[in-house]
Amino acid sequence: MGTKSMKEIKDSLKQLLATHKNIAVDLPRADLIKEAVDNKNAVISARGALNTWTPVESTGRSPKDTMIVKRISSQHNIDWDSPNNIPLDPETFDMVFVDAIKTLKKKKKIYVTKRSLGADADYSLPVETITDKALTALFTDNMFRPRNKDITKSIFADREFTLIALPYDKLDRDRYADRLRQLPDGKTSNMVIGMDFDRCIGIVYGSAYGGSVKKLMFTVMNYYLPAEGILPLHCSANEGKDGDSALLLGLSGTGKTTLSADPNRALLGDDEHGWSNNGIANFENGCYAKLINLRQDKEPEIFNAVFHKASYLEHGAIVENAMMYPDGTYDLDDERLTPNSRGSYPLTFLSNIKPASTSGHPKTILFLTADANGVIPPAAKLTPEQAMLWFLMGYTSKLAGTETGITEPVSTFSRFFGEPFMPRNPNEYAKMLGDRMKKHGTNVYLINTGWSGGPFGVGKRMDILLTRRLVEAALSGELEDVKYKTDSLFHLQIPTSCPGVPDEILDPKNTWKDKQAFQERAKKLANDFSEHFEKAYGNKGIEEAVKKQCPGK
User: Fold this and answer.
1) What is the largest CA-CA distance in the chain?
2) Which residue of 32, 165, 179, 212 lies most exposed, with the fewest beta carbons within 10 A?
């Protein structure tokens, strides 16, 4: 079986859409909502949001089934040593495509949405989603942007990306034996989330998790943009009253969502942005927020976006895999199905946003980490080389399970604070960040939202009010006017003072009673950095000036 050309792929899709008897293209939002309910894709909750539950294998992303077609023409652009970049044989992808077309032909109705990614018209990517589920079409209405009126001026105008989503269909295991991954029980996987960058097509087959659709498309953007001189960033972004933009990068649990929701700053977006010669632009149209343990008093913006009361035809927020009682009310603390319950909603459901979702070049970038070792300072200023290093590392720490009463932090590294979605060779992303910092005079700060006074179990989590004060000082420029001292182990510049913050907590060593224990813990973490750097980047051509900034070196 030979692989199909771009023309053959597009012709097959055109024929499908031309011959199927029941095609709905860009249905009005209220119609998508109604059909999602009528077709039993979802049920109506007490306050009007739609509620859906997925099969157990679709309660989160399926990273081992997420694959990139490996082609001679583009394989040199991708870091195949990264555990998240799993190659897919072109012939196998074409088999999946053929099966998807056959499956779609049998469906009673096909939904097509024509949306785009990217608020900046210069590089907005047109996306056509083809699916058999009204709820999936509604999800793209929430998450992807309306087609820009100037889409013909985009650098991607003639590279429309096609996404086929068959969330509840499964592949024939026997047909894909030795082609897709083998499961622990010896069977072949019956799902795939496949991306063919060269031919501008993606397929979600067998995964009903909304994040599979969202993250496939953002991975596509993160691959395409660097070739066009644009840096993609997995971050939230907001803008001050004077038009100054800021970016916040951080992994789950570091406080990115909480700290970016600032009443004094308008939100551009909470997850994916591009930094071009024009400045910053959000990729998306909505948010896909975690709901587990959500509290109205702590996260009022997210809570009200998902759970405000409205007619269901005017609502359209999608609640995925949360515990809903028969009366339509929720228990957001119940994680028996999954701790990864989610809410999808348009940005317009939030009160303090910038509708254009664009801003100028960022004045400040914050790297957030939640260091459970208690040895990273609450705030540190980074040089361009240090920023490139911490960008490469994407460090935070997670808490291991308790055993005989002892809980130890586990160092976690996710390149660019979004490793699964950044497929290109690492030096591309890092160098682009350093170049832009220097060109635009952008300040980068490391903010530790984790522990102080000792590791988890001994010390305490940083007071959120003090963290907010440090963030405010970084964004306002106050931290530019204070003295710094150098931490030689972690190669960090630590401020010796900050208005509104006690001086003694700024150097983490001061907060530990046992200074020797601090030194040992710090050296252990620095060694974790060094080991991970060598494993992930030892042969990746990282600049020597950046290598020298790695803790432990």
Assistant:
1) 74
2) 179
Domain-terminating residue out of 300, 330, 351: 351
Question: Distance between CA 212 and CA 198 in Å, rounded?
Answer: 20
**320 and 400 together in one domain:** no
CATH of the domain at 16: 3.40.449.10
In a domain, 471, yes or no: yes
Residue 408: band (very low, low, confident or very high) from pLDDT cuts 50, 70, 90 = confident
> Is 173 among the residues known to form the active site?
no
Weakest mean pLDDT among 113-122, 255-264, 341-350, 475-484: 255-264
The residue-averaged pLDDT of 366-380 equals 97
Residue 276 within a domain? no
Residues 305 and 373 in one domain: no
Those residues whose C-beta lies under 8 Å from the C-beta of residue 156, and which sit 6 or more positions away, are 123, 124, 125, 126, 224
Active-site residue, from 122, 270, 271, 371: 271
The whole domain housing 304 covers 286-351
pLDDT confidence tier of residue 394, bands split at 50, 70 and 90: very high
Look up 61 and say whether it is catalytic.
Answer: yes
DSSP notation for 367-383:
EEE--TTS-S-SEEEE-
Active site residue 219: no
Confidence label for 400 from pLDDT (cuts 50, 70 and 90): low
Sort strands 161-166 and 201-205 into parallel, antiparallel or unpaired: parallel
- Measured distance CA(364)–CA(77) in Å, rounded: 29
Residue 252 is a catalytic residue: yes
As for how many domains the chain has, the answer is: 3
Catalytic residue among 4, 199, 214, 215: 215
Q: What CA–CA distance (Å, rounded) separates 506 from 498?
A: 8
Active site residue 71: no
In a domain, 246, yes or no: no
CB 317 within 8 A of CB 345: yes
Residue found under tokens 């095609």: 23
Does the model's pTM come out above 0.85? yes
Could you tell me the two tokens for 169?
Answer: 């269909």
Tokens of 466: 């003090």
What is the helix (H) or strand (E) element at residue 99, kind and residue range? helix 90-105
Residue 542 is part of a domain; what is its CATH number? 3.90.228.20
Residue 44 located in a structural domain = no
Please indicate, yes or no, whether residues 32 and 130 belong to a single structural domain of this protein. Answer: yes
Closest CA to 169 of 216, 214, 107, 212: 107
Catalytic residue among 115, 133, 145, 234: 234
